[in-house]
Write a structure and sequence with these properties.
Main location (chain B): membrane
Protein name (chain B): ATP synthase subunit a
Shape of chain A: rod-shaped
Number of helices of chain A: 3
Order of helices and strands of chain B: HHHHHHH
Radius of gyration of chain A: 69 Å
Helix content of chain B: 55-70%
Low-confidence stretches of chain B: 1-15
Organism (chain B): Limimaricola soesokkakensis
Shape of chain B: globular
Mean pLDDT of chain B: 89
InterPro entries (chain B): ATP_synth_F0_asu, ATP_synth_F0_asu_AS, ATP_synth_F0_asu_bact/mt, F0_ATP_A_sf
Keywords (chain B): ATP synthesis, Cell membrane, CF(0), Hydrogen ion transport, Ion transport, Membrane, Transmembrane, Transmembrane helix, Transport
Oligomer: heterodimer
Strand content of chain B: under 5%
Largest sheet of chain A: none
Low-confidence stretches of chain A: 1-22
């Protein structure tokens, strides 16, 4: 490597167009202190900034994000759990309501049946009473009709006897009519 | 490098092509005349581009995350992506004990990443193309890791070199090889990074030099575009490689038994 450097140096020396210097600036030892000094400064600055500000901040952000994601997942799990609970409660409420409705229907049906039975009984009693009453009225009418018949028969017999010119005893005529009616009855 | 040196020589031929593939790596004072001496405190182009890298890091990771939003903005999302990427790398390779060193590894990764990518801007200077910079980074890792190894494990750290699984008569040989490879680590660690970047950047300049010949210029543009694309990959991959090697060395220090 050294020989090559010399070659380059010689070349520069021969042609003299360039400012004096080695072939490879990398091997120019005179520039080393400058580079090393500024390198150390730069590394120091970068390290200081990274360790004091950048890395803790980014680490905190990443941790916070991880925490947020974990929390969100837990919250989602919780919500799903609650949704499932709500669904169960809803189903239960629905079943209860249905059972309640069935119970009410049955109760109402029984109530109506009972009411109906009482009403029917009452109506039957009324009907029986009315029937008995009517029977009585019919009997009375029949009786009065029979009495009227014998009266009319007596009157008619009396008139007929009178028409024949016989002076009939009213009592005899009545007795004869009654006897005739009694025969037929 | 030999060819590049030759190219440099040829570049000076009258009427020929002019190649200056290494001018871009020169350290120059940012203010004042070119050729002014560069002492250790001089604000140079290296200073400027390192500062730009630091500003980009601050912009992405501090200003980008100032919202601290649970639902992140785009910049915050990118910052979290980088954070998660390096954090996972450290955790996967070194285990939980290595997370203590996560800020240091993050610092290395971000500095190299932004230096590499900013160096791809036209006219920019790439601090990580200098062996002085990468050697300091690699030596820093090497020394830190070695110290951690001895502090955490005491003399048991030397078990890293003593393969208990190997047959007894092979162990000393393996131990010598292991020790050599251990001390070569910072060399390969630093030269890999600088070498990749120098090669790519120099190659772009060489192809750009060919553009002086009219017939070759379309080809030159295509080649520059292709190599630039490759360099975009290399910039990211080398930052990743440097970081993951750091993690592996750290793992060796924390768990020296194979």
């Amino acid at each position: 490597m050294a020989t090559e450097t010399i070659t380059a140096e010689e070349a520069l020396a021969v042609h003299g167009a360039e400012a004096a210097g080695p072939g490879m600036p990398q091997l120019d030892v005179s520039s080393f202190p400058n580079q090393i000094f500024w390198l150390l400064v730069t590394l120091g600055v970068i390290y200081f900034v990274l360790s004091r500000f950048a890395l803790p901040r980014i680490g905190a952000v990443l941790a916070e994000r991880a925490g947020t994601i974990t929390n969100d997942i837990a919250a989602a799990e919780e919500l799903r759990h609650r949704a499932r609970e709500a669904e169960t409660a809803y189903d239960k409420a629905l079943a209860d309501a249905r059972a309640e409705a069935n119970r009410i229907v049955a109760e109402t049906k029984a109530q109506i049946q009972a009411d109906l039975d009482t009403e029917i009984e009452k109506a039957d009693a009324q009907i029986a009473a009315k029937t008995a009453e009517s029977q009585a009225a019919i009997d009375e009418i029949r009786e009065s009709a029979a009495r009227n018949v014998s009266e009319v028969a007596r009157d008619v017999a009396r008139e007929i006897v009178a028409a024949f010119g016989a002076d009939a005893d009213a009592a005899k005529v009545d007795a004869a009519v009654d006897a005739k009616l009694g025969e037929r009855a | 490098m030999a060819t590049e040196a030759v190219a440099l020589v040829e570049g000076e031929e009258p009427g020929g092509l002019v190649f200056h593939p290494f001018d871009q790596f020169e350290i120059k004072p940012l203010f004042g005349e070119i050729g002014d001496p560069v002492s250790w405190y001089t604000i140079s182009n290296a200073t400027f581009w390192m500062a730009m890298a630091a500003l980009c890091v601050i912009g992405l990771l501090v200003i980008g995350t100032r919202g601290r939003a649970v639902i992140p903005s785009r910049v915050q999302s990118a910052a979290e992506l980088v954070y998660g990427f390096v954090y996972k790398m450290v955790e996967d390779v070194t285990g939980k004990e290595g997370l203590k060193y996560f800020p240091w590894i993050m610092t290395l990764f971000l500095f190299i990443l932004f230096s590499n990518y900013l160096g791809l801007l036209p006219l920019a200077f790439t601090p990580t193309s200098h062996i002085a910079v990468t050697a300091v980074l690699a030596l820093g890792v090497f020394i830190t890791v070695t110290v951690i190894g001895f502090v955490k494990n005491g003399m048991a750290f030397l078990g890293l070199f003593w393969m208990k699984e190997a047959p007894l008569f092979l162990r000393p040989v393996i131990a010598i090889i292991e020790v050599i490879s251990y001390f070569v680590r910072p060399v390969s660690h630093s030269i890999r990074l600088a070498g990749n970047l120098v090669a790519g950047h120099a190659m772009i300049k060489v192809f750009a030099g060919f553009a002086a010949i009219a017939a070759l210029s379309p080809l030159s543009v295509v080649a520059i575009t292709a190599i630039y694309g490759l360099e975009v990959l290399v910039a990211g991959i080398q930052a990743y490689v440097f970081t993951i090697l750091t993690c592996i060395y750290l793992k060796d220090a924390l768990h020296p038994s194979h």
